[in-house]
Structures are given as C-alpha cells and as structure tokens.
Design goal:
single chain, alpha/beta, 11 helices, globular
Length: 283
C-alpha cells in the first residue's frame, strides 16, 4: 500500500520524537493530542529537535522548515480519518489504549493500519479492541527516537503479511532498522532490559555498591554507553514501573515487578530527566 499521511496520537517525549522523524522522512504527519498544552510542548520539542539537527549539519534550514511544515497539529481525533497509518504513542496504560483503538476503528478507513508504540502490552489485546486485527501491529520505537536506530515490529497471529510489509518499508524510509518479533509481552528489548534495570536498583538497596560504582561497572565491564541507573533516568522511572507491572502480570513473575524504591521515587515526582531528576539530578 502507498503511505502518504501518518498520524501520531500522543505528543509526549515518544510521540514528539516519532512525529519528528516521520515528518522529516517526507510524510504528511498529523499530530493529535487531547489538550492544547501538551500539544504545544510537543511541537516545541519537535522544533528544537530540528534546530539541533541543523546545528549538527544533518539537516539544512530548508529541510527543517519543510519537515515542520508537514506537521498537522490537531485536538480532534476525527482528523485521523485522513491517515494511512496511525501510530499510537499515549501513556502505557492498557485501558487507555483499548479505548483509543476502539475510537480509531470507528473513525478511520477500513484500510488504515494501526500501530502501537507500546513497550510491553501484548498487541493481540490491543487488536481485539478493533474490527481489523489483520491491520494492527506493534511498532516500538526507542527514546530518543531521532537517535535510536531500532524499531521492533510486533506481529500477532492475525497481523497480515501486507501490514507487516507496509510497516517494515515505512521503517526503512525513517532510516531505522526494523526487527521482527512475535507478540510476547516485553518483546525483545524490554524483556531483557527491565530485569537488568530492576536488579541494579536492588543492588543499590542492598548496599552492594553505590550509584556511581554500579553505573561505572556496567559501562566499563560490559561496554555499555551508560549504566542502568542512568538509563532508568533516561527512560523515565514511571515508564519503567509501568512496563514492569505489565511484564509481571503477563509472565506471572513477581521479580519483574518494580522495586519499592522506584515506586516511592515515582510517587515523589522523581521521574528521571523529564521531571528534573531521578537517580541523578539534572545539571
């Protein structure tokens, strides 16, 4: 199928990043939010992202201006009827996603592909909220979207080959590497990453080592670009807790549930970089 218009629902950190790369790749990009304030914050993030690309020399000013002009901001879900592909990037709360996909199913053309950026929720559960499970897949980007090269393409037993091919080709036009994965909670990256991150918090709680020692050990001992506690700040502590809760429930493994320290930090508003600090204060 020919993809010309892509809609991104949600303009937070992930949604804004996705919209930024989609518009830069030449697609007309509808950006939908429920309220104007988060929409304007997201558009500002996108504008700043293009400005950084111009400063680095990876885009010209003309290319950045053209990409931003392809963005179509809206607060009206009915505007999504124009989209060939809709990418959902709202909060990692299952019921919110089910409600959105039910609404999209009644708004969009029967030919529209629905893709979820969920980090952990099984795609078949999301697809059941629609009448088109053959046109529903996971399309999982990583933060920060403009820099991270991976997309996990998650297919259920009902996802058609045509849907998989269309999303794979689209991912290639975004200059991403697309890897195929079956619909299993956590997919590849978070299935491996979340237990690692939570174990680092448990080591800290147990007094095995302090924050800097844990992060330094994993950077120098395993060649990782950042340590697990620093990475939690980048991901967002609230996001990690939500992913862990889904994994623990779906895989019936309580070790995948977030440590109490993380829950307390989230309750205290310490979400990581997006809130001004988590394990590390922002400079």
């Amino acid at each position: 199928m020919s993809i010309e218009t892509v809609a991104v629902v949600g303009c937070g950190v992930m949604g804004a990043g996705i919209a930024q790369v989609v518009a830069a790749a030449g697609y007309r990009t509808i950006v939908c939010e429920q309220l104007d304030a988060p929409l304007q914050r997201g558009l500002a993030r996108i504008s700043d992202g293009y400005a950084r690309s111009v400063k680095k020399g990876s885009m010209t000013t003309e290319q950045a201006d053209a990409a931003y002009a392809r963005l179509v901001p809206t607060l009206d879900r009915h505007s999504l009827a124009q989209a060939d592909v809709v990418i959902e990037a709202i909060a990692e709360v299952a019921e919110l996603k089910y409600e959105l996909f039910r609404a999209l199913d009644s708004i969009c053309s029967p030919s529209t592909i629905f893709a979820s950026n969920t980090s952990s929720i099984p795609i078949h559960l999301i697809a059941q909220a629609t009448t088109r499970p053959d046109r529903v897949a996971g399309f999982h980007f990583f933060n920060p979207v403009p820099l991270m090269q991976l997309i996990e393409l998650v297919s259920t037993p009902f996802t058609s080959a045509a849907t998989q091919d269309a999303l794979r080709q689209m991912g290639t036009t975004l200059n991403k590497t697309v890897v195929a994965v079956k619909d299993e909670s956590g997919f590849i990256v978070n299935r491996l990453l979340i237990p690692y991150l939570f174990e680092a918090v448990r080591l800290l709680d147990a007094g095995v080592a302090d924050r800097d020692a844990i992060d330094t050990a994993m950077k120098l001992g395993c060649g990782y670009p950042m340590g697990p506690l620093q990475l939690l700040d980048v991901i967002g502590l609230d996001t990690a807790v939500s992913i862990g809760d889904v994994l623990a429930r779906e895989l019936a493994d309580e070790r995948l549930s977030a440590p109490q320290r993380l829950r307390a930090m989230v309750a205290n508003g310490q979400l990581g970089r997006k809130s001004g600090g988590g394990f590390y204060p922002l400079a």
